[in-house]
Amino acid sequence: MRDEHGESVKRYRSLLVDLLLAAAVLAFTIPTTAIGHSYALWGDPPDWLSHLVGAITAATMLVRRRTPWPMIIASAVCACVTAQTVPLILAAFSMTSEHRMRSWKIVALVLTAVYAVADYVDPYTDETLYLSVVRALTLVYLPALVGTWVCKYRGLVGELRAGVREREEFAASEERRRLARELHDTVTHAVTGMVLNAGIIRDVEDPAEIPELAAGIEDKGVQALAELRQLLTVLRRDEVPAARGADAIARLVRDAEAAGLRVDLHLDLPEDGLSPRVKHACYRLVQEGLSNVRKHAPGALVQVSCVLDGGQVCVRVDNTAGEGYHTHTMARRAASAGGGYGLDGLRERVTLAGGRLTAGPTPDGGFAIAARLPLSADDRSVE
Q: 182-191 burial by CB neighbour count: b if 16+ within 10 A, else e?
């Protein structure tokens, strides 16, 4: 909407300028002929012809942005018939400022010559050929030269504006993708766990287990609300969310074990020395891996490894083939409810942190997600 408004304002402003130029041409030609101060380079044309040539020349100012030739020809004829040279000046500047003419130098020289002749034979000016040529070069050829610079400047400004719009659109797209990743990681994983626990409650045989399972659903809901509240705080205050480190990864594993997964954790990450983006990427990778196991491989044995290796952070979540358990129906429902964007978003997140992600099936029928990340990443926000 803003671009359309800007284009509309620009169009009306250009039309206003053209109308003012047309009025200026009429002001220089019609009154001069009416008081008898106009003259022609040859003969003595009737007044109606001078008025007609002046009006046509003024009208060509309205189409000077589309094509320069009507304005060029009319201004030259006007100088020969009425001896008015102002249209020549406007034509010389407009033909180069509004158009990229390859032959502008030749046309400018022709207009300069017409101006010099009209100025030289003007009975109201000195009859010095040198001064007429100087005035012609100054008032005709120089404006044409300046017009080429104006045209190049407008082109450069247009390219810069187009580049700015492209960067703005790219930044907006990246921000939407970042929000989509955060919402997916926050909502999808929490809801998946809640769906699975709800399925267990429906199929559980011992009523004494129901309060514990319900408490798990409540905890996951509270955790999801807390993360959503933190994300909304970031959007409103332009701050960065707190990065999740080794303690958060351990908590993820404990929650997964409470939901029935068998997880073997090997965690050896320093609390200091890792950038917020790397910490967050590690947390999200483990979260995505555990969530995928709950949805696609219930009953599998999961191994989570977060260690330093060769100056890099190595994170891996792999699982054996799922063995199934009494909530396999709910697991399938949770899987079908997923958006399918988890790995794509995770790959983007790891790439932004300067790392590389691999994901695929293992020889034993399981699945593995692994990433190698640098110890630090140049970032200003956690994504």
A: bbbbbebbbb
Tell me the pairing of strands 262-268 and 301-309. parallel
Cβ atoms of 227 and 269 within 8 Å: the answer is no
Please tell me whether the overall predicted TM-score, pTM, comes out greater than 0.85 for this model: no
* 264, amino acid identity: D
**Proportion of the chain above pLDDT 90, given as a percent:** 20
Task: Judge contact between 322 and 365, C-beta under 8 A.
Answer: no
Structure tokens at 176: 């939407």
CA 196/CA 2 separation, integer angstroms: 48
Q: Which amino acid is at 18?
A: D
The pLDDT tens digits of the residues spanning 90-111 come to: 999 999 998 888 888 999 999 9
Return d(Cα 58, Cα 29) in angstroms, integer. 9
Dihedral sign for Cα 212, 217, 222, 227, please: positive
Among residues 187, 178, 189, which one has the least CA distance to residue 292? 189
Residues 74-88 pLDDT 10s = 999 998 888 888 899
